From TrEMBL, chain A:
It is found in: Membrane. It is a multi-pass membrane protein. Belongs to the amino acid-polyamine-organocation (APC) superfamily. Spore germination protein (SGP) (TC 2.A.3.9) family. This is Spore germination protein (Amino acid permease). Keywords: Germination, Membrane, Transmembrane, Transmembrane helix, Transport. Coiled coil: none annotated. The keyword rRNA-binding does not apply. The chain crosses the membrane at residues 12-31, 43-67, 79-101, 143-164, 184-205, 217-240, 272-298, 305-323, 335-356. One of its GO terms (biological process) is spore germination. Its main location: membrane. GO terms for cellular component: membrane. The keyword ATP-binding does not apply.
From TrEMBL, chain B:
GO terms for biological process: spore germination. Keywords: Membrane, Transmembrane, Transmembrane helix. GO terms for cellular component: membrane. The chain crosses the membrane at residues 290-314, 383-404, 416-441. InterPro entries: Spore_Ger, UPF0353/GerABKA_families. This is Spore germination protein. The keyword Transmembrane applies. Pfam families: GerA. The lineage of its organism: Bacteria, Bacillati, Bacillota, Bacilli, Bacillales. Belongs to the GerABKA family.
Amino acid sequence: MNSYVGKQITLFQFISIISGSQVSVAVLNLPRKLSEAADTDGWIALIIGWALSLIAGLAIVGVMKYYPNGTLFDLLSEYMGRWAGVLAAMLFALYFFYLMYDGLVRTILVTKTWLLPTTQSFVLMSLLLIPAYSIVRHGIRNVARYAELIIWISLWIPFVYIYTLKHAHWVYLLPLLKEGWLPILTAVKATIYPMLGMVSIFILYPHLKYKEYATKGIVIANSITMLLYLFVTIICYVYFSPEESHLFNDPVISVLKSIEFKFIERIEVPFISFYLFIFSLIWIPMMYLLTYCIAWIFKRESIGIPLRLLIILLAVGTFFYFPTYNINNFLVRQLFWVGLILEYIFPVCLLCYLWLSKFWKEERSSL
Amino acid sequence: MPDNNTEQNIPHSDRISADLKENLAKIQRLFTETPDMVTRHLTIKQSGKQALLIYIDGLNDKAAINENVLRPLQQEMGENSQEIAVTVGHVEHLYSWEKAEIGLFQGNSLLFIDGSERTYSLDTKGWPQRNIEDPQLESSLKGAHQGFLETGDLNIALIRRYLPHRGLKIKRLMVGERGQTTVSILYIEDIANEKYMAKLEQRIRQINVDAIINTGELCEFIEDNPFSLFPQLITTERPDTTASQLLQGRCAVVVDRSPNVLIAPVTFMSFFQNIDDYSSRWTIATFLRLLRVFAFFMAAFLPAFYISVVSYHFEIIPLKLLLTLGESRGQVPFPPFVEAILMEITLELLREAGIRLPAPVGQTVGIVGGIVIGQAVVQAGLISNAMVIVVAFTAISSFILPNYDMVAAVRLIRFILMILASMFGFVGLVIGLMTLIGHILSLKSLGTAYGTPIGPVRLADLKDTIVRVPLWLMDKRPLSTAPKQSIRQRQSRIKEDTE
């Protein structure tokens, strides 16, 4: 139903979208969440979380290999009938909306906390929607290029974090496994939310230029994300003492307070402003995916109308209601379950189903 | 000799008559109130027939008419009785008034002979023309000092001097209903991708206007996104730049009567390149390119950055600097935004005032501007010293950019960013930058991505954009132009032992 000619994306753009939407807002409080569950051993949980996300990611790619020239919804329509496709599209539209809204809300809350405490939420929301609209309306290719470019221009950020190592106390990391494996396993729960976003492969896959690299792509993307989290988490752990590290809401930002340059003080202010770019890597791709889902349901090629409606809905909606930090945290906790089902369990089950149905078909034809 | 054998298709009323008197009457009827048209009766010596020569005074080379047309016709006997014995370069046989008229106003002279139902259109073009000069907007230090002129054919000749090869093809189109303009598309056949050719031609053919006065007008009709602030096509005054771009697989459009040549397709980074980059050493060229990118950001963002720091985020300024700034701003009655707008507007006024004033008067603008901006405003306590520095820095940065159209875009973007910064501080700046990036990524030039090689990232093309690597390492033509033949050179440098 859709043609993908002239809408192809490269492997690096594919990786950028996935990694970008995973990292974006989640990185801010990940170290705190990990340390709440497992103290300074939290980083081990990251590796386990990474292994889990790899399984899920490979399952998603595995599913898409059954129908390489269409999205998940085309696949479901093919295998189970159009109703299944529509159902899935509605479900995923809601899910992408959830992810996008969470990203936007988190961005606005962080901005209000650190930069513009007196500005009203709906003003900030409208402000954020301007670039989002101008990027998303030109389609997947533009979104992919944007993600790619932002990844490139953000490469310097980790180097600034290395500066904080001046104040590092590596002993904080010791002893390893101080309370055994159990806390670490509970901390794995906290690694699910920061890995969400892989599911975009369901829609990106047919756009991928060289589909044989999709597996490689998801492995690289998840590994980049994991390494980044590991880096940030360890930096936070060696900087804050074990007691301190749950006190800060966004330790990733607070850690920057220690950095001093001759020419600039309070480096976290320009940093948070720059972080808006990284935060945008969740809401911009998700906005595209969401509008794609809606356009798919109505069998439309262009995403123009749903996108405009969405923008108006968000801007007007924020005028009447905007979540607080507590509600946002509640949303994130719910997102954990939703994400776990849609990104981890659903692809694995679907893969099993597809494999079995193929197996049965072969069985039948051999009889 | 070209013979327009389309007699059957010409309607009777448009057909040139065989009777000279009838033709003369028609000429007098058609061209009323045309005092610059010269009509000359003569007798051709060879055949003894009556003839009529008409031309537009001023569009013709009088010497050529006397020497090559009148003298041979009136004095000499040709060997071949079929031919008329003129010695001009190009003679065309025309049967219709319509075509004859176009030729006449393009500077040809028309020869009607009694008994012949056609006219000879003689190429005796010659009009007042300035000499070849150094290009005004794109002067170069080490490159050639020849700029384009107002005659299309001469401009094409200037380009051909750099590319004496039959691969250089020219496609001619006529644009405009009243002031018919010759528009020529130049491309190198085995390099340029034909999809650009087709697109260009299609867009130019679509133009249906009275006349195209300048290349800039043509540009506006064929640009991909007419609402964008950014120029999506380059106009250049330099034949060497044009030749170099043609070799990279792009197309050039020469518009007759305009000293600018259009280059398409281009990328955002093309606007930071200059022909001098290739004639200076690659290290300094790379440095200059980086400097230009820096200057672009300074010119667009510096006032906005200053506004947001002073009005929102003064906590990021180190204490000593903050004290200095505070001292300079203490007297100023305006908020930073008003201060900045005032200064920027003054700067734009001065710049505009200086452009079109004759040189002796222009100096006055400099003096008045210098004193007003530099001293009086600060001494009166209206504007802070820091703001003057910021504005001066912005102005200098914008002068570094080599392309005038891009500078114009930056000037407008600066004001938008200043408004955003005054309302939202750094957040406004980042949103502005984000929208800018999104916009550049979505732009297209003749259907190719405007943002290459930055977005989409094309590592191979980076060699000749933000940096310039040594020429002997640029073995391939840029990917962004999708050339048919991508190898530009092979091993052009001898590797000698360094012992």
